[in-house]
Amino acid sequence: MRPKKKRRIDFRPNVVYFKPRGVPLRILKEEEVNHDELEALRLKYVKALDQVDCAKKMNISQSTFQRILAGANKKVAQGLVKGKAIKINL
After folding, report:
1. Domain of residue 52, residue span
2. In this predicted structure, what is the pLDDT of residue 72?
3. Distance of alpha carbon 74 from alpha carbon 18, whole angstroms
4. I need a labelling partner for 46 at 20 to 30 A (CA). Which of 22, 33, 77, 88 fits?
5. Alpha-carbon gap, residue 43 to 32, rounded angstroms
6. CATH number of the domain that residue 78 is part of
7. Alpha helix locations (H) across the chain?
8. pLDDT digits over 21-53, tens only?
9. Is residue 70 assigned to a domain?
10. Range 7-32 average pLDDT
11. Are strands 30-34 and 85-89 parallel, antiparallel or unpaired?
12. What percent of the chain has pLDDT over 90?
């Protein structure tokens, strides 16, 4: 197994939970978004960079970036559609 490359992350969020309004957190299931997944979402959708530039900024390959982004998109979609809390793991 290849060693994991250190990923460059230039963002630290102030908020680490998002949840449906009016539903107590204790009864919600969670989707956990990793710090690198959040950075991928930020670079792609907030900074509007293409995947090659995003991968360069994170110091990873474009295919690795695509896998991270796909996983993040799936988790966020699951949280929104199924009414789960979204927790950001730092």
Report:
1. 1-7+35-90
2. 98
3. 16
4. 22
5. 19
6. 1.10.10
7. 35-41, 51-58, 62-82
8. 999 999 999 999 999 999 999 999 999 999 999
9. yes
10. 91
11. parallel
12. 82
